[in-house]
From TrEMBL, chain A:
This is Protein glxC. It comes from the Bacteria. It comes from Novimethylophilus kurashikiensis. GO terms for molecular function: oxidoreductase activity. InterPro entries: Glu_synth_asu_C_sf (IPR036485), Glu_synth_lsu_3 (IPR012061).
From TrEMBL, chain B:
The lineage of its organism: Bacteria, Pseudomonadati, Pseudomonadota, Betaproteobacteria, Nitrosomonadales. GO terms for molecular function: glutamate synthase activity. Residues 112-131 are annotated as: Disordered. This is Glutamate synthase. It comes from the Bacteria. CDD domains: GltS_FMN.
Length: 227, 448
């Protein structure tokens, strides 16, 4: 397996290798050593490859990822897998704010907890969090699914559109226009499928469904403070 | 004998204010409209040039060479942008504008050797194909934002704010959120779309620096990165943008337009372009970054004289939005179909307005087919006709710019300088820090 050591090369050299040289080399798996919280590790990937980051990442690990399967054997800073299009990013530890922000596709798995604004502006990504998520998560979430095995903080799903969240634990409060809805068989199946993808073992029947009430889709003078 | 009717209008509660109160009372919603501030503001009109004289030697107006080449993104980008003229097309979204308009903008800009810019909602194939140089905006909403288009772009503009609505997010009312627009933005068809006002994955200036670095990493440090701010605390914002690693800073003054925003934003938030430009230049000079970080100014730029004054005050280029739309026929009484002018007055009247006064972009019912997504109305703008008109407009501005520069003795428009200008009003003198005409007085700087 190819190893790239961030004690020996810069993150710029790393990313330029990943973008420009890796695609033609036929490498299927590589590891990144000594990440030491560096930002933008493996950002802008456009190649089908398994990447193991052996340690903690900084901001924007796997940012705008396409195709790659990235595993972080540690914690990450803000915006992990932000604007991801496809592939998978798995964080074995904890993630800071804005995990999976504006993601269009692929799967983001966080085995620990995440901080504020997880799944903000998500646009089709699937996010599975083994622990709990912070306040204001799922703000303006447009599409995609988020499974939270722990608790959710204040203002979950504020102004959300068509995304759907499944929460196993407590929800401190819902944001404007977010509501708890009954689970259907399709919801149970979706939760099971996402838990399987993440490798988490929980009973889908323990989850609640949160979705947009769609009352703020068009201007409404009687909802004056919601705008 | 009949009694004489005496009508005395209140200065505070005039007809306009009465109409505002009545409308608010009837609807319970604030007014949303398009275009920019309509109030009188200190502007480039309040400056004039001191051209060649006994002490300054003018260049011959028609024949002597006057360079307009403009290079943007020389600080960090491996591939800076070189434009033939310092006049660019400002960011405007597909959604606010039709695909045909985006095509027309691209065609005209390409023929003039300048750039166009995407907007909220992402990049359309029409504008990418027709634009030789295309700037790709990264906005708070991230609608349609993706790495493939990012790599196709020639530069990236990270938008923090817009002059018409600093502190506010974008807006596109349901009548313009058609199937195609909604698909590009991952939104339900017909929703009254209100964009976020803050970016989802960074907050303060230190985070912004990391975000800029990420965009550079994704694009292998090739593309210039612009940071656009709506004009408010411009001196500080420009310094922070430089700190964050911008190659180019775009400052959009309060006269800047919009396709739809609350009127209260348009008229009451932000500072005039004139004041913002001076603050931006002060900030760059304070950091010794003039010439290293390029400055684009926008917000109410209309004429070649405006462009020349902006450059003389220290801008490297300007960006134009409303002027560009007007050149395509916005607020014209007619539109062109197959070479014939067809009267559109009745359609303006149906919107409750008239040519020359229309700011109804938010309705999507643009009588001349510019700011619409309606399949029938958008046909009123023929891309080739629009491109020809816009090319003419840009050409005229550039000719005015160079003729002014020559008169000031400059063989390069970028050699225009503050010393070429004087102010006609105290307000403009104070805001622009340019002496009042006939004096050496700059209020707050030098004695009368």
């Amino acid at each position: 397996m190819e190893s790239l050591d961030l004690h020996k090369i810069t993150v710029r050299e790393l990313n330029q290798f990943l973008h420009k040289e890796l695609p033609g080399k036929g490498v299927k798996k590589l590891e990144i050593l000594n990440p030491d919280g560096v930002h933008s590790i493996a950002a802008g990937m456009d190649t089908e490859v398994d990447i193991d980051i052996q340690g903690h990442g900084g901001y924007y690990v796997g940012g705008m990822n396409k195709h790659a399967n990235i595993t972080v054997h540690g914690n990450v800073g803000w915006g992990v897998a932000e604007n991801m299009m496809s592939g998978t990013v798995r964080v074995k530890g904890f993630a800071s704010s804005a995990a999976g922000a504006s993601g269009h596709g692929g799967t983001l798995i966080i085995e620990g907890d995440t901080s504020l604004r997880c799944g903000i502006s998500m646009k089709g990504i699937d996010i599975v969090v083994g622990g709990s998520i912070g306040n204001f998560s799922g703000f303006m979430a447009q599409a995609g699914r988020m499974v939270i095995c722990g608790d959710a903080g204040d203002g979950l799903g504020d102004s959300m559109y068509e995304a759907v969240f499944y929460v196993r634990g407590n929800i401190k409060s819902l944001g404007a226009d977010a509501q708890i809805e009954p689970m259907t068989d399709a919801d149970y199946a979706a939760v099971q499928e996402l838990l399987n993808r993440a490798g988490f073992k929980h009973d889908p029947k323990e989850f609640k469904r949160v979705a947009g009430a769609k009352k703020l889709y068009n201007w409404n003078a009687d909802a004056n403070q919601e705008y | 004998m009949s009694k004489k009717l005496v009508l005395e209008e209140s200065a505070g509660f005039n007809q306009k204010v009465i109409e505002y109160v009545h409308r608010a009372s009837a609807t319970g919603l604030y007014e949303i409209r398009g275009m920019g501030a309509k109030r009188q503001l200190p502007s480039f009109d309040d400056l004039v040039f001191l051209a060649g004289s006994a002490s300054r030697y003018p260049l011959e107006g028609y024949r002597e060479k006057c360079t307009t080449t403009t290079v943007l993104g020389t600080r960090f980008a491996k591939k800076p942008i070189e434009l033939a003229i310092p006049i660019t097309v400002a960011g405007m979204s597909f959604g606010a504008l039709s695909g045909r308009v985006k095509e027309a903008l691209g065609r005209a800009a390409t023929e003039m050797g300048t750039s166009t810019t995407t907007g909220d909602g992402g990049m359309t194939p029409e504008e990418r194909q027709s634009s030789k140089t295309l700037v790709y905006q990264c906005l708070p909403s991230r609608y349609g934002f993706n790495p493939d288009d990012l790599r196709k772009a020639d530069a990236i503009e990270l938008v923090i704010g817009q002059g018409a609505k600093p502190g506010g997010g974008g807006m596109l009312l349901g009548q313009k959120v058609t199937k195609r627009v909604a698909g590009m933005r991952t939104l339900p068809v017909g929703v009254d779309q209100r964009s976020a006002c803050r970016h989802p994955d960074w907050t303060g200036p230190d985070d912004l620096a990391i975000k800029v670095a990420e965009l550079r990493e994704i694009t292998d440090w090739e593309k210039p990165i612009y940071i656009k701010v709506g004009a408010t605390r411009t001196f500080n914002d420009v310094k922070l943008a430089v700190h964050a690693g911008a190659d180019v800073i775009v400052v959009d003054g309060m006269q800047g337009g919009t396709a739809a925003t609350q009127t209260v934003f348009i008229e009451h938030i932000g500072i005039p372009t004139l004041a913002a430009l001076r603050q931006a230049v002060d900030a760059l000079e304070d950091m010794n970054m003039r010439g290293k970080v390029q400055l684009i100014v926008s917000g109410g730029i209309r004429t070649g004289a405006d462009v020349a004054k902006a450059l003389a005050m220290g801008a490297d280029a300007v960006a134009i939005g409303q002027g560009v739309l007007l050149s395509l026929g916005c607020n014209s009484s007619s539109y062109v179909q197959n070479g014939q002018h067809i009267d559109a007055t009745a359609d303006y009247n149906a919107l409750g307005t008239a040519p020359g006064f229309c700011h109804h972009c938010q309705t999507g019912k643009c009588p001349v087919g510019v700011t619409t997504q309606d399949e029938i109305l958008e046909q009123r703008l023929e891309p080739l006709v629009g491109a020809k008109r816009l090319k003419n407009y840009l050409k005229t501005l550039n000719m005015e710019l160079t003729t002014v520069a020559r008169a000031c003795g400059k063989s390069n428009v970028h050699h225009l300088e503050k010393e070429d200008l004087v102010a006609l009003t105290l307000e403009a003198a104070a805001m622009a820090k340019i002496p009042l005409a006939g004096t050496n007085w700059i209020p707050g700087v030098s004695p009368f």
